[in-house]
Amino acid sequence: MSPLYTENKPRTLNECFENLISRRGWYKQYGYSHKLAYQKKISFRKGFMTEKTIRDYLSQAGYQLYQQELWFKPNDNLKNKR
């Protein structure tokens, strides 16, 4: 395992999922088949897995959201003044 994950501190969504799927036999404790786990790993690494799916897997694996995401839409009037 990489030194990046030796400390117990917040990581990005993709870092956490990569950490999860890079562990040998990670899928066994969740009842997934080897074939499904392999497909999910390939799908993730090619960028085809949705964030919702990643979040679902991480939640099931015991990961917790550390910081809520914040969104806003800039005022369109401000864009036009630049």
Task: Give the helix/strand layout.
Blueprint: H1 13-21, H2 34-45, H3 51-60, H4 76-80
Helix pairs in contact: 1-3
Count of helical regions: 4
Bin the strand percentage. Answer: under 5%
Q: How many domains is the backbone divided into? A: 1
Low-pLDDT windows of residues:
1-5
Q: Any idea what the shape is?
A: elongated
Computed structural class: mainly alpha
**C-alpha termini separation:** 48 Å
**Would you list the SSEs in sequence order as H and E?**
HHHH
Rounded Rg? 17 Å
Q: What is the subunit organization of this protein?
A: single chain
The overall pLDDT, averaged over residues, is 85
What does the model show?
This protein has 82 residues and is mainly alpha-helical. Helix 1 packs across helix 3. The relative contact order is 0.13. Helices cover 44% and strands 0% of the residues. It is elongated, with a radius of gyration of 17 Å. It starts with 12 loop residues before the first helix and ends with a helix. The chain has one domain.
Summarize the structure.
The chain has 82 residues and is an all-alpha fold. It contains 4 helices and no strands.
What descriptors fit this protein?
82 residues; mainly alpha; 4 helices; 0% strand; elongated
